[in-house]
Amino acid sequence: MKNIFNQSHAKEVLERIDHLSPNSKPQWGEMDVAKMLAHCSAFQDIAMGNASPQRSWSGILIGRFVKPIFYNDKPLAKNMSTIPTIKIVDEKEFEAEKEKLKQQIIALQNNGAQKCMERPHPFFGKLTPEQWGKGIYKHLDHHLKQFGV
């Protein structure tokens, strides 16, 4: 499984982001490309400790039992539910969101994996740096595939 803290895996994600355009269309889901980028940035904020949404009751009850879906080799399901605070509904500007996400990926590299241990995932709870790294990559990969890159 690829890990966002691996330099070559992060570089691959950055290159895929560069292949997006304002005209990129989703293969599933309701978000346009700018909203998807903003959604991914909002998720990065959680991983980086810049946002800490409340844990849901369902997450508290079952999150630790199902958390391997976040970092295992199986692709994320299309149209699966998301953390309510990172569901993007407002219009976003493509270039600004693209640059913000790229800078966050670079910041993750610079800050290191240990920074992700400061906050639990709002559904899955406490994760190791390796689990965060795999999960972040998997989430980005899921949404980049959603837009064909």
Could you write a compact summary of the structure shown?
This is DUF1569 domain-containing protein. With 149 residues, the chain is mostly helical.
Give an overview in words:
There is one protein chain. Helix content is 52%, strand content 0%. By secondary structure, the chain is mainly α. The model has no long low-confidence stretch (mean pLDDT 92). The chain has one domain (7-146).
Give the helix/strand layout.
Layout: H1 7-18, H2 33-47, H3 57-66, H4 68-71, H5 94-111, H6 129-146
Helix pairs in contact: 1-5, 1-6, 2-5, 2-6
Keyphrases for this structure?
mainly alpha; 6 helices; globular; 149 residues
Q: Rounded to an integer, what's the Rg over CA atoms?
A: 14 Å
Total beta strand runs: 0
Biggest sheet: strands, sense, closure? none
Give the number of helices: 6
Q: Which structural class fits the helix and strand makeup? A: mainly alpha
Instruction: Supply the number of structural domains.
Output: 1
Mean pLDDT: 92
Range of helix content: 40-55%
Cα(first) to Cα(last) distance is 18 Å
SSE arrangement, N to C: HHHHHH
Please report which band the strand proportion falls in: under 5%, 5-15%, 15-25%, 25-35%, 35-45% or over 45%. under 5%
Poorly predicted spans: none
